[in-house]
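S., here's the first fold you wanted:
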Amino acid sequence: MLNHIATFLLLVSAATAQTRIEGAYNPQTRTFETADKTQRIGGFREGYAPISINNKYAFIDTTGRLLCEPKYDAVEPFNEGIARVENQVEWISKYGFIDKTGMEIVPVIYDDAVDWWTRMTERSDLIWVKRGDTFGMINKAGEFVVPLVFNTIMGFSQGLAAVRKSDKWGFIDSTGKEVIPLIYDEVYGFSYGIARVKKSDKWGFINKTGEDVIPFIYDLVGNSYHDGWIQEKKMGKYGIIDTTGKEVIPCLYDGIATFSEDLASVNIVGKYGYIDRTGKVILPLIYDWAGRFQRGFAPAKIGDKWTFIDKTGKELTPYIYDHVSVFSQTGYASVNIGDKCGKIDRSGRLVVPCIYDGIGGFIEGFATVMKKTEDGVKRGFVDTTGKEVIPCTDYYEIRNFSEGLAFVKKTDKWGAIDTKGKEVIPFIYDLVEKFQNGKAKVTLGNETFYIDKKGERIKK
């Protein structure tokens, strides 16, 4: 209670102290609008937003009230009632945490501390901090739950966090209790209720009580696949086991990829092919490289040339390309002949000839293209027939079409063109965002506002 009173007095006792920011909260944009542009205000989270005053940070609420005096070199958003703050001490960062009263529940003395994004994704009530070479964990009241005794603390996964002391690893729970002893040489987080761990140069898996569920017989194991399968390596060869340790694919291969569209590429002595989920070889190991199947096709290479193959092994085109990408949702893939690129469709037809030095994906029926010439880089647009509908010209930068208009940049200013290349919005803007629902956000000098498709200023 005394700390809360002291914080309040600090804010109001001095006549020169600033306790409130003049301005108003805009509930539609969820921003605090102030006339003083030197006071940079971030987005609100849990009722508070960071504010910079004279290069020092604090927080304000939606009424403009300062939560604390501006005294931090950096702050992070609030998460579950607390926020990480940072100060520079002789160019070295020190971290702590404040609560929504502005009280420092964790003093700003630690060399490192968990960031807000990690806390949000892990959903743990504990905060790890580091001082010197040791880590510990503090609760939201600022009390140590795990003392500064560990050399490493990893993030929580399925309720447990890996910890290291000296050169051995184990796991603690969310109360800080050591639930799996520190006896392992390496560990990874829990997934599907098991964790891969290493002991005596061999890998195996344990459950959340520390029991061995997959024996320590593997030279290497990978992360669990989305379907619960795990890549393994034994006696120099790769295969797949499930989460019970049952061998699904025998260890026969020099490499095995994850399954995609029910097929996985495998290789032996530099030759690639595909197997199904039973381990049956569906496409023979005849390729010099083979990628993942996506939308029915996979890139494949024989010699130094590429094509696409379907799941029967049928070639979409001859082996004529020096590089290929994957097929996009719009049904096109980029291909290269030499250092020039173009586009093919799912029939294998070359719809955009390989004459460009750069090409983007089709959006609203148009793709950005780029040519290098003696006069510099030229940029334009092609349609899905390969026609250069907007010739490559001296645009400094171009954006994809959105709602029938594309922002393009001449010299150092942005404007917009239509699908015929006609300039419909003048080249006067410093920053632009794409059109959405008939309007686009633009910046002109110190002003940021919205315009319609005629270039006229409108309200959001």
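And the second, which I think is the more interesting of the pair:
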Amino acid sequence: MNQGLAILAMFLLVLVGALSLPAGGQSPSLPHRVELSLGQENVTFHSGPYALYGEIYYPENASGLLPAVVACEGTGGYVSAYSWIAKAIASDGYVAFLFDFPGQGKSEGLHPLRSLFFPRLNVLLRPGVVHESIIHYTNGDCTQATRDAISYLTEESPVAAVIDETCIGLIGHSLGGLVVTDTACQDSRVKAVVALSHATPESVQNLSVPVQLQGGALELSPFSKSVSILETCYKDAPAPKEVVFIAGGTHLGFTTTLGRLCPCPPWQKACCLRYALGWFDWFLKGDSHAYALITFGDPGISRVLRSRYDFGEGDCFLHP
């Protein structure tokens, strides 16, 4: 009986995902942005007993101070799976800092650093990484690492002198979504948050900064329950807040894992960037043009799961 209900539930979720595909299946284009020449710094910093690996991307020849965004990866993640986000953020005029949590990617952890990388698929395998990720999150190591990443970026990194410390944002996927919402409640330096696939309901209730939540309409993992978690977090979060559901979007679609074989729609990353960059541009830069990006619909959002925002005057719905 339970198995039958599970199959039925899975079928309904797939149906919802199928119905939510953009009309004609076309990929929406990103808003026009000036392409900037990017610099990159590969760095190591410490958090507790661990040396953590990170990559900093920044626009070269920028004048004046720049806002910054720290990016947090998912369970078992590694920087090359998320560098597309960091590079896009830097191309929009930010300093972007992406790092590996303790026990993930190229960072130290509880066990010796051993891994196997398959470049054609952009897949990195590290023994015991999922188990270790759970331990580090439960112990608060991931949240502390994120706070230490902010400190390193603004105080010790090669680009510290060009960062506007009053304009710091966080973006995180999956495990990283939990971590960025936790961190924003503990660290007053954080001024805006974007959480992809997951967020921490208890932390979201206590946020004092704008939070945007994004999820894929086809995030079907019985272990994640992403859609229901994001709906709960949006309901409980204080304004300003936004939740965006991407049509046909998947959990892996927020990464470049598996390369061209990634099971995700071609519009997922473009749609993700439209709303994430718009959120940071509005709340960190005060860019008046960004308001339209986050308050108008996009062909890539779901037609069934309702994307919406609330800036203090109640829900306003986005339409594909």
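Why I say that: Residues 137 and 143 are 7 Å apart (CA to CA). Residues 1-20, 23-32 have pLDDT under 50 and may be disordered.

Talk tomorrow,
H.
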